[in-house]
Design brief:
By secondary structure, this protein is mainly α. The protein has helices spanning 2-18, 23-26, 29-45, 60-69, 71-74, 81-99, 106-122.
Amino acid sequence: MLENDIRKLIDETLSEAYGLNWWDQYSPGSAKEECKFNQQREQEAAVTSRSENELDYVSFGQLGEIIRSNWILFGGILSNQKALGRVMFSLNTLRGPIAHCGLLAEDEIDRLKLTVKDWFRLLEGPK
């Protein structure tokens, strides 16, 4: 749910600033490449497309790259770019076992709770 909320924050922020077709001009090249790769992989597997939204085809790590490359907008929403990098790295590391139906050790559950708190602290904006 948090990952989808981050996707929504990105899409709404960039759509408001640049219009609904922001992807081509305002997403970093690495995100575009990953999106195309994942779209092609789905097509070659002959499965139903998961979405028409390019954001749904990029990894959690790329979400952070999209935010960083558009910091001029997100700097007014999130409190600190360096803290964003740390929080996104931690969330990305912790999401792996969760996304792949693994179990988190008790310490990692505590770490996840703290990292989610850190994310919401970032959303409090610049001080």
